[in-house]
Design brief:
Elements (H helix, E strand, L loop, with lengths): L20 E6 L3 E2 L2 H4 L6 H13 L9 E5 L4 E3 L3 H10 L5 E8 L2 H8 L16
Parallel strand pairs: 2-4, 3-5
Antiparallel strand pairs: 1-5, 3-4
Helix pairs in contact: 2-3
């Protein structure tokens, strides 16, 4: 238990403990920019493989972790969109994904999905690749 539970956060990117890091998130917890969702930023072969993984029950253990930014309210998907799309197409609304969760707004997720390098907010160790 913290010694000063009511002390103010030091910065606006400070998020509650237990939210950041690696964890499982369900399909319904993830948010995706509508414009990017309509562009299909993935290869058909990757989508077919992801759909097979969802059908066979192996998607939960898929590696590497999906990159996700958390803005304090929503989890914005920033990588591996084909996995999300596979679950959407199959109606697997309770599908879980292994995710790397960092603080940051929707704009960071959009940059990552559109091919711009992902650099998490207030993080001196950006995601590789």
């Amino acid at each position: 238990m913290p010694s000063h539970p009511r002390s103010p956060a030091r910065s606006s990117v400070k998020l509650p403990g237990g939210v950041l890091g690696r964890d499982y998130l369900k399909f319904l917890q993830l948010s995706v920019d509508d414009e990017l969702a309509s562009k299909g930023l993935f290869a058909d072969a990757a989508l077919q493989d992801a759909m097979a993984a969802v059908r066979s029950g192996f998607m939960r253990g898929a590696q590497p972790a999906m990159k996700v930014f958390f803005d304090g309210c929503q989890f914005w998907l920033a990588s591996h969109f084909h996995r999300y799309e596979a679950a959407r197409r199959l109606g697997a609304r309770h599908q879980e994904f292994w995710c790397e969760i960092r603080p940051g707004p929707k704009d960071h997720a959009i940059r990552c999905l559109s091919g711009t390098p992902c650099t998490p907010v207030a993080d001196r160790h950006p995601w590789p690749g």
